[in-house]
Design goal:
This protein has 492 residues and is an alpha+beta fold. The protein is 33% helix and 25% strand. The chain is built from twelve helices and 27 strands. It has a five-stranded mixed sheet, with helices on one face. A hairpin with a 2-residue loop joins strand 19 and strand 20.
């Protein structure tokens, strides 16, 4: 063997020996190194130099601090830890898997070289167990912050505080199927654990498909129309429940609620319109039935004759003030309260004197009146159907044209004593004092005539009064003491 060949062999032996020694040193270095080799990632994170125990400890600490929040309509509904949700973790399997992975990296020089040179991506999940009972008790609708309500359609209801119908707002229910909710939440948590994204806080939005409440309608137009109709009926019922009772002495005339309601129109906005024409028509019919003044009046005299006093000479009686009555009746109706009253009458003349005394239905005399027969020159005074006094009188002088006015008149007032002043037919003035003065028509009246020695007969034809009804003092006194202003005086 030549010297040169020998030298080359010696060199190669030295190089190989050095390489083997170097490889042995590398192998020893990595095999004795704690933790995973350079280039190792776990679930995408660099774990070079980290031991399986360190990695498992870090994972456990991360999961221990996790909170899971269920969110409803963008607001927190339920928050708890993993243990609240029933989750607990087992580290044994993960630790064993990581230990095996680390050992596999270091079992040969080639595996070490491969890992260091090319890197190794490890994936591993932390195994968990779920206590289903704990989960079921925690994840349920009853534990959510928002109370559960059933769906309720809008409805027409009676508001007792206002006694009117209102349309209640629809309520969209939020009842939840616990089984669906639990299935969804468990899936979301499981996915986060498997994906390695369950770190820190996990927020889960409650999906719409777990709700069981029916979807309500927001269109209340038909109900609003129904509500308006019911309120119209309710308002009309108040008018139907009332009445206006007119009194005519002990007799009555009733305007019933059904009639009143027929005059009412109620708008959708609740506005009430009362037909003024209907009111006027009713008041007019009332006046036609019960008015007695300025209408022909039939009268039965003491001796049984039936006489008729024309309307123009009938100043006694009742006249309904139709304008005032229409106004009052409308106010009564607007009050929706039953009323009992007399109609609004024109009760006095321009001088403030009464136009009537009393009535019983359409009978406005009711047995109280003074009757004077010019032909018989006699007077009768009845009160409540009883004859109080009667006697001969002297009426207006026929010869001088001062006849006593015929007709029916209310007693204006009475006065005692009184001084009568006026003019004779020839124009001369007179002034005479009487004890009992009871005027009934334009200066004519009943009074005592102490200057006369005789009454009755034909005295009135040539020596009558200036239009008054002269009475003997005793007769005048009896009448005066028993008569009231407004009493009817019949002259015929």
């Amino acid at each position: 063997m030549s010297k040169s060949i020998r030298n080359m062999l010696i060199f190669l032996a030295i190089v190989v020996g050095a390489s083997v020694a170097a490889l042995a040193a590398v192998d020893h270095h990595y095999k004795t190194q704690d933790g995973f080799l350079k280039g190792t990632t776990l679930n995408g994170e660099d774990v070079e130099g980290k031991t399986p125990e360190e990695i498992v400890g870090t994972a456990v600490s991360q999961y221990d601090g996790v909170t899971i929040t269920l969110r409803e309509n963008g607001e927190e509904a339920l928050t708890g830890s993993l243990s609240d949700y029933g989750y607990s973790f087992s580290t044994d399997e993960m630790l064993q898997a990581l230990t095996d992975a680390e050992k596999s990296q270091k079992e040969s020089l080639s595996s070490i070289f491969h890992t260091v040179h090319d890197g190794e991506e490890l994936t591993q999940t932390l195994n968990y167990t779920l206590d289903q009972n704990t989960f079921t008790q925690f994840v349920r609708a009853a534990n959510l912050k928002q109370p559960r309500v059933a769906s309720q359609e809008a409805a027409v209801t009676l508001d007792s505080s206002t006694n009117t119908y209102v349309v209640t707002d629809p309520v969209q229910g939020n009842e939840i199927d616990d089984t669906k909710l639990q299935s969804y939440v468990q899936q979301q948590i499981g996915d986060a654990i498997k994906n390695g994204t369950l770190t820190g806080n996990l927020t889960i939005d409650i999906p719409s498909d777990v709700y069981t409440s029916a979807t309500v309608s927001t269109d209340t137009s038909a109900l609003q129309q129904e509500c308006a109709e019911k309120n119209r009926e309710l308002a009309l019922q108040e008018y139907k429940n009332m009445s206006v009772t007119y009194t005519f002495g002990n007799q009555t005339e009733v305007l019933d609620g059904d009639t009143i309601a027929s005059w009412i129109t109620i708008g959708d906005d609740g506005s009430v319109n009362i037909d003024d024409n209907q009111i006027a028509s009713y008041v007019s019919s009332l006046a036609s039935k019960y008015n007695t003044r300025y209408l022909d009046r039939t009268f039965t005299t003491t001796d049984g004759q039936t006489i008729t006093i024309s309307g123009g000479n009938n100043e006694y009686g009742y006249t309904i003030d139709e304008d005032a009555e229409c106004s009052q009746l409308k106010k009564d109706i607007e009050s929706r309260q039953s009323v009992t009253r007399e109609p609004c009458y024109i009760s006095t003349n321009d001088y403030g004197n009464p136009l009537y005394l009393g009535r019983e239905g359409t009978d406005d005399i009711a047995g109280t009146y003074v009757e004077v027969s010019i032909d018989k020159q006699h007077l009768w005074f009845y009160k409540n159907g009883q004859l109080i006094a009667d006697g001969d009188v002297v009426t207006g002088d026929v010869k001088t044209g001062q006849d006593t006015q015929k007709g029916c008149f209310p007693l204006a007032y009475k006065e005692s004593p009184s001084t009568l002043k006026g003019n004779h037919e020839d124009g001369s003035e007179y002034s005479v004092q009487v004890q009992y003065w009871m005027p009934f028509f334009e200066g004519e009246g009943l009074h005592d005539a102490s200057w006369r020695s005789a009454f009755g007969g034909t005295i009135y034809q040539t020596n009558g009064s200036n239009g008054c009804v002269n009475c003997p003092p005793a007769l005048a006194q009896t009448i005066y003491e028993n008569i009231d202003a407004g009493t009817a005086i019949f002259i015929y």
